[in-house]
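Slide 14.
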Amino acid sequence: MKFFYICQLGYWLHALPELYFQKAKKEDIPRQLVYIFLYLVHIAGAYILNLNRLGLVLLVLHYFVELLFHVSRLIYFSNENRQMGFTIWAVLYVIGRLLTLSLSVLTVGFGLSTVENQAFDLAAGNFNIFFVR
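Slide 15: predicted structure.
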C-alpha cells in the first residue's frame, strides 16, 4: 500500500512540470494547478494521517468512475452516435460522489470519534483528535 501511495504522489507531482512541457494554454493552467493540488493534498493527507485503507477505497472508487468516463470518450470518438456511455457515467459519477461522501463521514466523523484512544501520539501514528478529524 505504501508503494501505491508513493506512485500516486509521484504521478501527481510529475503532472506539475508536465503542464510546461505540454504547453498548456494560459487559461487552463490555474484550473489544472487546483486539480493537481487537490489530488496531492488528499493523497498525502490520507497517507500522513494513517488513513491508508480509507484513502485506497476512495481512490479506487474515484478512478473507476474516471476510467468509465475515458472509455465512454473513446467509444464516442469511434462512433459519435454512441453516447450511452456518458449517461451511465453521469449516473455512476453521482453515485460515486455520494459513496465517497458517505464513507468519509461515516469513517472519520462517526467511526474514529467512538474509538477509545483519542490522543495525539506522533510516534505511534495516532492522529485521532477532534481538530484532525
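Speaker note: The helical segments are 2-21, 29-48, 52-78, 84-111.
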